[in-house]
Amino acid sequence: xxxxxxxxxxxxxxxxxxxxxxxxxxxxxxxxxxxxxxxxxxxxxxxxxxxxxxxxxxxxxxxxxxxxxxxxxxxxxxxxxxxxxxxxxxxxxxxxxxxxxxxxxxxxxxxxxxxxxxxxxxxxxxxxxxxxxxxxxxxxxxxxxxxxxxxxxxxxxxxxxxxxxxxxxxxxxxxxxxxxxxxxxxxxxxxxxxxxxxxxxxxxxxxxxxxxxxxxxxx
Length: 219
Description:
Elements: H1 2-31, H2 33-42, H3 45-61, H4 66-104, H5 106-112, H6 115-126, H7 130-139, H8 145-153, H9 159-185, H10 189-218
Helix pairs in contact: 1-4, 2-3, 3-4, 4-8, 4-9, 6-8, 7-9, 7-10, 9-10
């Protein structure tokens, strides 16, 4: 337990440091799309690894809104490659959160994640038809997907199964965000704004209808 507490303190300290030092810088960098695109593309393969690292950073630290990174992926690399690199980054980040929760255990994870939110997510992913519910939570927009990985790590679900559900559920949102970014890059602003508006409506509906949909799945 002493080792786990030390690991927790170190992890929280690292998160605070990264959020304070790099969070604003990453947000600012991603807001300057043309400069970011030129910088990443000039690095070749290293640029791809840097971008994937940004996505991992976003999932683990959560100091940067995921949509910023994901739209940037489409802006820089287009729909296909942007989606692919985002999937790789999201998978690595989700795996880190999942295994960290599984190693630390509930008593320590509840010090990282707000206790009330963690309890709500555990109730959702630990009940009947938990895998279907977990997939739905990743699929519905507007829900805390990065925190969900911590809750899933405290359940018996196999790691491979969790990652499959996570990627499958997130795929439509990742592709959609890449499409928005690619549309902005091609100056199809009207299309990008229309898709972004539709995604925002779906996010609101996802939050409002989540409980009803989950209840239907569990019947």
